[in-house]
Amino acid sequence: MSMNDYIVNGRSFRTAEEYKAALRDEKKIEIITKKYENADKDGKEHIINVIKKGDVTFETLMGEDFFYELEEKHAEYMKKSSNNNKKKNKIKKKEKLKNEKKKKNVKETKKQNKKKVEIKKSSSKAKKSTLKEKESKKKTLEDYDAVMQERIKYEWYLQEKKRRRTVLFCSLVAIFCLGYVFFYYYFYEKNSNEYEHLASLKTEENYIKDNKVHINYIKEEEKKDLVVLEKYKKLFSQNKSLIGWIKIDDTNIDYPVMQTVNNEYYLDHNYNQQYDKNGSIFLDKDCDITNPGTNMIIYGHHMKSGKMFGNLKLYSSKEYYDKHPIIQFDTIYEEGRYQIMYVFRSKIYNEDEIVFKYYQFFEASTPEEFDSHMNEMAKMSMYNTGVTATYGDKLITLSTCDNSEQDGRFVVVAKKIN
After folding, report:
1. Dihedral angle at the C-alpha atoms of 4, 5, 9, 10, nearest 10 degrees?
2. Span 328-334, mean pLDDT?
3. Residue 13 is part of which domain span?
4. Domain closes at, from 133, 165, 190
5. Coil vs helix vs strand at 415
6. Residues with Cβ within 8 Å of residue 106, at least 6 apart in sequence
7. 316 and 364: one domain?
8. What is the CATH number of the domain that holds 281?
9. Residues 326, 265 within the same domain
């Protein structure tokens, strides 16, 4: 069965299992849609709440998208029904005004009678209140015996102690929450300012006298003398792990790209080599910018704040891709522009699983091997960009986490155009 056969409701799916799951979701969608259309106001509200509680679940993104559309449709329905209720209320108010005018004369006479009754009631209430005050005055601490007074005082002490503990606990929780918010925004702003400063260094005057440098992350016998681009000299002098810069227009992706002898360090360290939960954008340890292979893989965290590769998932929309098809990726000694070819979801597989693993694709030694990898990625791609590559083209792969499944990954592949 080809990729084109795994289509449900205009969506394509990679595997037969995903296709079957999509068919099951489609049946659920048809049933829910019919029930919703035929239900009254309370019935519609009940259907929405049942899905929200998780009593009805979907196995694919198609089901989740349907639920979002159903919520929007329900919101419009509720808005219309509220407008109708307002119109009805206006009509009722007009009718009430008419009836009130007719009953004015009758009410006036009733008011006079009520006043007389209220005067009598107020006098009786006044008597009762005086009696209650007398009774309350009697119930003071001094009215009890010594033993009872001690018990009362002890109960007051326990209540006051409990109250103070509660106030102290609530105060500590409030201080902790405020502190967390403060430090979160403090480090968020600090991180943003630091990367803005790094970006500004690309255009400032540089101070490296010798423009030939040794790339530190390759073996000694493989070192080459390379000319660092003027705009990256100062950045490189501050951190020799810098290997380039990546930028995508209209996103937060405008960062230095780092590389070390492992793929762990820059998961939680920034350009200044300080601990940072945002980490850094970094090139896979098995890639070599001095002698690029077929494909260079670049990693970055998917942060909820949008930092690092947090905006990469915008490419799940074909409309967004159409407006932003180019990635700017420079090495420290060569500028480069890349055109996006494939956008897909994948995962980290077990070693014994026989399946295409994009994160192991660095080099294609033959045209047949290259075409095989391209076909695999084309099958997984969320949409057809119309961009293809041939053996000898240079590629980059941007990879970030994806929470749609365990160990999921969101991947964007592009080829160098100049």
Report:
1. 10
2. 95
3. 3-80
4. 190
5. strand
6. none
7. yes
8. 2.40.260.10
9. yes
Domains of the chain: total? 3
Q: Does residue 130 fall inside a structural domain?
A: no
pLDDT tens for each residue of 73-106: 888 888 887 777 777 777 777 777 777 777 776 7
User: Is 372 contained in some domain?
Assistant: yes
Residue at a domain's end among 28, 45, 80 = 80
Residues 360/325, Cβ–Cβ less than 8 Å: no
**What would the two tokens of residue 349 be?**
């597989």
How many C-beta atoms lie closer than 10 Å to residue 355's C-beta?
A: 10
For residues 266 and 258, give the distance between their C-alpha atoms in angstroms, rounded to a whole number: 8
| Same domain assignment for residues 42 and 155 | no
- Residue that the structure tokens 């009872």 belong to: 148
Chain centroid to Cα 147, Å, comes to 63
Q: Is this model's pTM higher than 0.70 or not?
A: no
Q: Which among 19, 23, 33 has a CA at the least distance from the CA of 69?
A: 33
Q: Is residue 55 part of a domain?
A: yes
| pLDDT value of residue 348 | 95
Stronger pLDDT, 331 or 27, i.e. the higher one? 331
Does residue 177 sit in the same domain as residue 229? no
Give the lowest-confidence range in 92-96, 129-133, 189-193: 189-193
Q: Any idea what DSSP says for residue 209?
A: S
**168 falls within a domain:** yes
DSSP β-bridge partners for residue 299: 282, 399
| Angle 151-155-159 from CA coordinates, rounded to 5° | 170
What's the CA gap between 266 and 338, in Å, rounded? 24
Mean pLDDT of 309-319: 95
Looking at residue 9, its amino acid is N
pLDDT, residue 396, reads: 98
User: Each residue of 279-301: pLDDT tens digit?
Assistant: 999 999 999 999 999 999 999 99
Residue 396, strand partner residues: 296, 414
End-to-end CA distance of the chain: 37
In order, the DSSP letters of 305-372 are TSTBTTTGGGGGSHHHHHH--EEEEEETTB--EEEEEEEEEEEPPPTT--S--GGG-----SHHHHHH
| Helix (H/G/I), strand (E/B), else coil: 397 | strand
